[in-house]
Amino acid sequence: MPDDSGGSPYPSEAWVAARRSEFRDVLMSFDPARPILILGHHDADGLSSAAILSRALERSGRRTEVRVLGRGENAWSPEMAAELRARGMGGLLVADLGTRAEPPLPGMPTVLLDHHVPTGVPESALSISGHGLHPTPTTSLLAWWCAGAVDEVDDLLWLAALGIIGDMEEASGFPELAAARERWGITALRNAVSLLNAPRRSSTGDASPALAVLLKANGPKAVLSGEFPETASLQAAKAEVQEALAEGRRVAPRIRGEVALILLHSACQIHPLIAQQWKGRLKDKVVIAANTGYRAGRVHFAARSGKGTDLIEFLRRHRPEGADPVNYGNGHAQASGGALLPMAWNRFMAGLGYGDDTQVEA
User: Fold this and answer.
1) Helix ranges (DSSP H) in 174-302
2) Neighbouring C-beta atoms of residue 193, cutoff 10 Å
3) Mean pLDDT score of the chain
4) I want to staple 84 with a disulfide (CB 3.0 to 4.6 A). Which of 52, 105, 160, 187 is the partner?
5) Taking phi first (over 0 means left), then psi (-120 to 50 degrees means alpha), and beta for anything else, what does residue 297 get?
6) How many CA atoms lie within 13 A of 313 on its CB side?
7) Can you tell me the mean pLDDT for 214-237?
8) pLDDT higher than threshold 90 for residue 349
9) Could you give the percent of the chain with pLDDT greater than 90?
10) Which 8-state DSSP code applies to residue 292?
11) pLDDT score recorded for residue 6
């Protein structure tokens, strides 16, 4: 979507109003007799986006179902298309899962909300993107703006703040985050993000307890309080991830040229956290944290850079034969990664100048 925010470094009121109008118009084409399906990512931003959309639509009298994608799932896979075809939905909302040239289910009225670098813009669906705006609105903030087209959502601003903190950290400059900090407290918001991100990073990868809490809590303190039974599951997941993270922090990087590689083997999704931590210590390197234990038959990796390297372009230049474009080199210019089959991973490592000690058996 072009930036029609009037040249402002932040989306103007007219930009937000236009997106709300577009969102409302597509909702009018959804079958009111069937539930709206919301597909969401399993991190704090995706979960918060799904919760905002579901809660606002339910308030307006529309039925919703939420489907959070789990480990190894992709909204554009043939398996997901088959699942979507089997559902009796009246429309589809896709939150924080990327944007491609076709919607996940062609022919179904669809809205895609996202802030990552798009790999295409579908002509047969509405794409509401934060990409290209400065600062880049997270999907949860886009969802909060759009949800205002169907009902009052002022009390759901804390959910948008969770997504901003989870994806953009706190120095992002969003006035909505400043308002949420004043109303709900930054410590509670921070702690809630940490807790909500834990399940998808745990060995099970099951984010459903986090979603369940967000669909009923009235603020971050309620998420943390223990009044909901799911909070105990979140706390257990966080303890597991912290233990795995402590072990991962002891792994030393292997440096070749401009790349610093950290090889991990953990059932927990710690590779993005490890890459982020080393980014601050190795500011002149492209940091790649790879995890051979996260998912059988795949090497998952996270890439980060402290020197402003465009990681989408870096990974494009070093794309190995056999890399699946759906699962390689997407995301943000400063936060990308992927998942490779062993043979493709081995080619990737060889292309970056690494030896046999980084090769993985098929």
Assistant:
1) 175-184, 186-201, 208-214, 220-225, 230-248, 271-281
2) 23
3) 93
4) 105
5) left
6) 5
7) 97
8) yes
9) 84
10) S
11) 43
